[in-house]
Structure formats: structure tokens, C-alpha cells
Amino acid sequence: MEIRELRYFVAVAEELHFGKAAQRLGIAQPPLSRTITQLERRLGIALLERTSRKVTLTEAGAVLLAEGHAILSAVTAAERHAQQAATAHPSLVLAVKTGTAGELLTKLLDAYAAEPGAATVELLLCEAHQHQRLLQDGQADVALLHLPFDSAAGLDTETLYTEGQVAILPASHPLAGRSQVQMADVTTLPTLPMARWPGPGGSYPEGPGAEVRNLTQLFQLIALGRTTVVIPESAAADLRRDLAAVPVLDAPSVTTVIAWPPRSRLRTVADLIRVATRL
User: Fold this and answer.
1) How far apart are CA 235 and CA 218, in angstroms?
2) Cα distance between residue 140 and residue 39, in whole Å
3) In the chain, what percentage of residues exceed pLDDT 70?
4) Strand ranges (E), 171-266
């Protein structure tokens, strides 16, 4: 199977429309259709069910789509890593969720920069649940994740630290003056429903709370009295004056880990991980 054939198939499988897939690939539709037909003939299986009205995936096609994503991500990462290895000034990309791990990130970047032969670290600020795809696609070399909120499935990790959680409330709210609260105190507030984060597929769970993607947006909505949230203590550092952070005694602990693809062989990544675990 050629990489070109796999790219063509993945485009059709995702669009479920030959015309849209051809437009996305920048090619004419007839050669795209011929390539998919040749691929099916060579494999001896049907990957797509075609009618005059729609295109659907067969069970075999669904399997190849999942495998194809992994293969194409590995190819993209291999291209980028090979280019990095050939440059006289290596760099690495660190993916971090916007607004999190502030103090740790500053210490990590300063400590790594002091290492002999340190590479240039490019920060890739991302939103919830994007780390895994960025690492798998080769857009990032390493990431800071917060378990159990982020998924580390299929990644290698090293634990950095574990911390408690706090409720973020408007400073004028009655609970804001307490020294501590329980989860039930926060999750049952009728006028401040819990904020909702997107899942791995990008969709939001059902509920009355505001849909949020990053802490900047979230804190603005909390200050306006629209929602509330329970987050790791470190994410509440340097909180704006119109908000308050109250420890939540029975909230589960959050573990921050540094994560990377298991296939990674970059010396720069190994050096950054070594510095992070030392800190």
C-alpha cells in the first residue's frame, strides 16, 4: 500500500463524498475514484459502499481508517523529526494547555535553557483534549498533561507532581469567603452550573453549564456569574481580583505528567524529560 493511496482513502472516508475529498486533496475526482478502486482490488476487499446518494464505510474500511490515521501521523512525525535531526540548531515543540502549569512551565524552561546544548523550545498552546492528537500527528514532541482530565493513552509519561483542586467562584459569592468546601457545595449551585469542557471528539456533554475551551474564557464567564468550575490548584495561580479560589476537600487529586510518543528517539526530548523529572 502506498502512502498516496492511504491519504486518498482517508480523505474519502472522512468526507464520505468523492467530490469533497477530491477538492480537499486538490485533484480531479476520476483519478481519485480509480485509486480507491485499485486499492480495493489489490486488497481483495470492499472499503466503501457506494450508491447514487451516499458513500458509507464498510467494517473493513472503518478499520483501515483508524489504522490510516496512525500511519499518516507517524509519517508526518518522521518527516519532521528527520528535518530536525539535519539542522544545526535543533528545536522541540512543547504542547501546553492554555493557562495551566504556569509556575512549573517557567521553572522547566529556565532550567532546560541552562543545560549544555539545549534546543530551542517552541510552545504550542492548545485547548482541552488536543495534546494527544498533537503528539500523534508529530505537531508536538512533548506535552504537559493533567490526569485524569487529559488522556495519556498510547503515550509514555513521567509523573511530575500531584495536587489538590479548588473551586473558582465570583469574589462576591457567599461561598467565596469559606476556607474550604465540598464538591456537593459547588456542583449544586442553581445559579452557577458547572462549566462543560469538550470531550476527545470535540463534543460537549449535556448540561446547563457554559461551554468553555480555555481558562481565559472560563474565568471571564465565572466573573460574570454564569458558571463555576473545580480545577487544579496551580491553574488558579495569579487569579484575577474579581474571582476567588476555595479548596475542595473531597475533589480527586490531579497528577501532572510530562508525555511523549513512545516511538520518539529525539535526544532533545530525552533531555527535557530528564530536567522536568529532576525539578
Assistant:
1) 12
2) 31
3) 97
4) 229-232, 243-247, 254-260
